[in-house]
Amino acid sequence: MEVDPANPYRLRLPKPNYLPHNIDYDKPVVEKFLKPLDRPSDMENAAYLNKIKRFAHEHGITKPKGYNVSFHYNPDMEKHHFGMTHPMKPWRLTLTKSLVSAYGMNFAMDNYTARAATYEELTDYHASDYVDHLATVAPQPQPLDIENPNNDLKYNLGGSDCPLFDGLYNYCSLSGGASLDAARKLTSNQSDIAIAWGGGLHHAKRAEASGFCYINDIVLAILQLLRVHARVLYVDIDVHHGDGVEEAFFSTDRVMTVSFHKYDPMTFFPGTGALDDNGPKNEVNPGAHHAINVPLNDGITDEQYKWLFETVIQRVIDKFRPGAIALQCGADSLAGDRLEQLRFVGAAPSVQMSVIPPDLGPIRDETEDRLREEYAERNEQRRKLREEGVGDRMEIG
Ligand SMILES: [Zn+2]
């Protein structure tokens, strides 16, 4: 296969996993986050860093006492593009990362550049023929189901939800790698809270892509946590049911999954996660009663959500006594999300800071410009579809 070394989106072929056995491999494998700012020159980086440092100092943003927080992420993820009209936009990671550093949060955490997950780490959960296919399949400029909606997609890849874009394998292994690094920081007791910024892809199945997710980084991370902890609790607050993670640990009592999600089996993706779905129906199966689902209707208020969350999670923790908790923070359940609106917009707290951190102005302007462009793009797409007499496509994620 032709590989252009100058092209950052080049295909990364699966490599054998080699980790030396006689050293503490966590240190060389997990790299310190060296360039968090991405300004054009070192001078500008230094000036900006000083500004943020002053802000962090003035507002008392320091490392917490008594526990450690780490942040795991690889900026190379941002370069990938799912396609013009696809709602999943990795560049948003850039914006949120800028926001995190503009608030001086880097000074409260240990920051690490995550490495890509190796082929063998990915096949810890995923089927090797599926991972081989992800690594070698050619990108498709057009989703295969546009002309023919009944196209039989191999591994559910190449359609408009899970398109085959340039650098797909690289994107998947970077997302998986960050969550693995985060999990290893926890198991080695170097972190108490580890944040993987580009993960949470909870719909991916063992050998099937689903709802914008190809590799289930959460399952990979929980498998790491299970090496050390007897029981791991998984909590999912994404607006969509955490079906991929639930399925992966369906038959074990070592992982309890709890998902809070919008539920409407007829119209809302993925249509699973009803109240009485709580694991295998056969009582002999150890996984029985270990998959808790909290289906929600539109319009839930913050107070109701908070009450429900605290009540359910407190009881789960008391009964299950997990050694570690994996939390999937899908932001699409927040009021005002552009994909789905689960909660009342008026009742939700937004990011209200009385102090604007340094240089947040340009970031906000940039965000608004990009959102405007995206909105115009989407309207244009809708107009075209209407002209062609095709209805609006249901969006999932
Ligand atoms: Zn979602």
UniProtKB/TrEMBL annotation:
Q: Its Enzyme Commission number? A: 3.5.1.98
Give the matching Pfam families: Hist_deacetyl
Q: Which InterPro entries match?
A: HDAC_I/II, HDACs, His_deacetylse_dom, His_deacetylse_dom_sf, Ureohydrolase_dom_sf
In alphabetical order, the GO MF annotations are:
histone deacetylase activity, hydrolytic mechanism; metal ion binding
Taking the first listed entry, what is the main subcellular location of this protein, grouped into a coarse class?
Answer: nucleus
UniProt keyword annotations, A-Z: Chromatin regulator, Hydrolase, Metal-binding, Nucleus, Transcription, Transcription regulation
**Subcellular location, in the record's words?**
Nucleus
Where in the sequence is the active site? 203
User: Can you cite a GO biological process for this protein?
Assistant: epigenetic regulation of gene expression
Tell me the superkingdom of the source.
Eukaryota
Secretion signal span:
none
GO CC terms, sorted: Rpd3L-Expanded complex
Q: Which SUPFAM superfamilies match?
A: Arginase/deacetylase (SSF52768)
Disordered, as annotated region: 375-397
Q: Where is the Histone deacetylase domain?
A: 86-343
Binding site residues for a divalent metal cation: 238, 240, 332
What is the uppermost EC class here? hydrolase
Record-linked PANTHER family? HISTONE DEACETYLASE 3, HISTONE DEACETYLASE HDAC1-RELATED
**What is the similarity comment for this entry?**
Belongs to the histone deacetylase family. HD type 1 subfamily.
Name used for this protein in its record:
histone deacetylase
**Organism from which the protein derives:** Xylaria arbuscula
